[in-house]
Amino acid sequence: EIASIHGMRVWDSRGNPTIEVEVTLADGSTGRAIAPAGASRGTREAVDLRDGGTALRGMGVQKALDGIARHVAPALRGLDGLDQGAVDAALIDADASALKENLGGNAMVATSLAVLHAAADHAGKPLWRHVADSYDRAPKLPLPEIQIFGGGAHAGGRVDIQDFMIMVPGAASFDEVMEITNEVYFAAGDIMAQRGKLAGVADEGGWWPQFDSNEEALETLVAAIEKAGEKPGDRVVISLDIAASEFGTDGKYRLSLEDRDLDSAGMVDMLGRWIDSYPIASIEDPLGEDDPKGMAEFTRRFGGRVQIIGDDYLVTNADLVREAATQGACNAALIKVNQAGTVSESIACFDAAVKQGWGAIVSARSGETEDVSISHLSTGLGCGQLKVGSFTRSERMVKWNECLRIQRDLGKDSFVQGAPLAQTWWG
Ligand code: PGA
Ligand code: ZN
Question: How many whole angstroms separate alpha carbon 347 and alpha carbon 86?
């Protein structure tokens, strides 16, 4: 039984205010979680409730905290904290809006996750084990997607493409993924330094994208993989998040860095050339969230060769997954709990993706904290993949390190390896 719910203002990796919620059950079990925040958000995702005005650059969370005290706590007190579905349903009821704007997705996600943590504490289990047991899943350590260069909204638009990442489906363990990623990350930094292009890091800790074209980032990434002693496309493959909604609407895409405009077909052709030329195994949001025709065309042409992830396109929404499947758009879903607003809706989206035979990737946001819930969710659901940003900065490393702790309990054999990408370029 839920005894108390308290919200508190804490601060995220960008120095912005965010919300931590602590839930206590009648038996004294407790759970705590912190809301992350996105910078390149989909228009259909749950919105954060912010105070606006000039103080804290409008990012204050007092209204959201008031909502927790006035509406969330009374609505949830007395409910069975082990019944996540009922708790989340009560949260959704209390908010009663389409995009969670009344209570705020930030207040809701912190509360929903904190309840899950409290239930795990009650069961005396680590969160990943509690998730696996209560949702009847086979836990597995995920294959990470790790950012080497940041771009797009995470680098002041320095390049158009948002994430240049690697995956190491050929690694034998999660531990080995970390080792190989370390080599590639620093090889990339060395190359940037040699070329006189080292200029610090972007928002999620990937190297700042000091490039003359978007493709130069890809070439440099391949060079870094080679410099790290790996054959590109062998154990290590490339994963991109285009985040096309950030530079395209109505089927028109503006590549500012290269001073050129592409229509939807032009984007599909360009990305297709990249898939032909580089060992790319996965592409996220290749077209805009308002471009279902482009997304379907891209999936028709390349869905057999690469994983095509919907992030802004699907916003962790089970209905949008089913709609996309009908359109023939995407073959994988990004799962961001704060896009949905609750744990239950996120798991429903994950299940909808699995039902379509799709891949799924649990993901962090660009604004993060020490919260490690997603490492546990990804493992406990046996989801297969995890994306949390780069290989530096503690708000990122804390998630990878938590997976290493889970590995100690679960065993190295529980790593999924390349299975999620088996049908792709790499397989
Ligand atoms: P975010 O974007 O800045 O909204 O968290 C991350 C992503 O696009 O995957
Ligand atoms: Zn994305």
Answer: 14
